[in-house]
Amino acid sequence: MKAVFSFLIVGLFSLSLPAADWSQWRGAHRDGILHGEKALGKLPAKPVAQWQVPVGKGQGGLVIAGGKLLMLHEVNVKGQPMEAAVLMDAASGKRLWETAFAPSWQYRNVYGPGPRVAPHMEGDLIFCQGVVGVLACLNAADGKVLWSVSFEKDFGAKWFGGNAPGSGGTAASRHGNAGAPVTDDKFIYAAAGGHQGASVVCLEKRTGRVVWKSGNDYAAYTGLMLAELAGVKQVVVLTAANLKGVRASDGKELWSVPVVTGAARNILTPILSGDTVTVASHTVGTFQLRITNSGDTQKATEVWRNKDVRTNITTPVLIDGHLYGLGTTRGKNSPLVCLEHKTGKVLWSQPGYTDYASVIAMGDELLIHGSRGALTLVKATPKKYTELSRVEQVSQISWNFPVYTGGVLYVKDGLRDGGNKLTALKLR
Asked: Which residue ranges in the chain fall short of pLDDT 70?
């Protein structure tokens, strides 16, 4: 691991969590909800760029905390493509440091090469996961790599790269490691995908020491969740074959249900509410489980299943008992749908959206960035689809999850050979 360049930040700065920070995948609470931000009401007809800088390829998503913006992208280091983390001043776009932490992979598909996972800012530490399965911990002050592990070398995960023969058993082997790890006070939990006892792993945050390894499933693309279900703290993970809960203290599998899909393509991050887990796949539809205790383990009972809402990529947000996200994808088109969380019933469906969209909830509004660059502001109401405002193009094609705070939307392109950019757009 080698830093491309590094500027020492003068003085100490805090990466604590003010109300409008978005410090990890899907926000401070991993639920797609931005807290402490005023409603927009409508979008400007032509958002003005506060600043814009060139960046490398990648679909890793952005995070922001304490006025510092963090992104991952692909860079060239002595002729070799590498994935790098870049910490920037959010107000100006000035780079504070840049550190290459993992090899990149040159995909031959429409999504292009580069990072697939949103980084994670937590106090004085930053966590980054690379497409080939390198998990690294960086010092937030200067970008120095404190430790790193390889899912392939350290945990036996298979890496084929692209669509190589033999990669059919594991989704992450075809399109890269895309499941965002999750942390608590002391540990980080990751979907390593080792199929001989290291499907999910727990490491000490500050040292990288392995605490436990669990399971044999290959990794899919889904972010991990951490919560108490039926009173037991656990990691909830959707693998390439199963949705399961793993006890956080020792890695013991508490419950598991099969989620067998085409090409092992499970993508959505599980949605947790009370003792329920809701998830979807393009193959099996959307379904909800209720977790209860059963002796030394737990039982997962299906509450409902909607086979017609076959969401492929976009994880919905849960607001006041209703789920808002994309429905079944057909080609490059999907409807935006509202589902009743308790029953799975579709309350409304609106066509005209793309194959992927990033959804940020603020109060009773949804800020939606589509993969082809459109930005839409929608009322979060189960009564009917209510579009408040739309701007047809705020970016080029992108699967990066943007961040919004303080009236500014930070959005990154990530597919083109040259010309990719990171832009800070004023929405107020």
From this structure: 1-19, 159-174
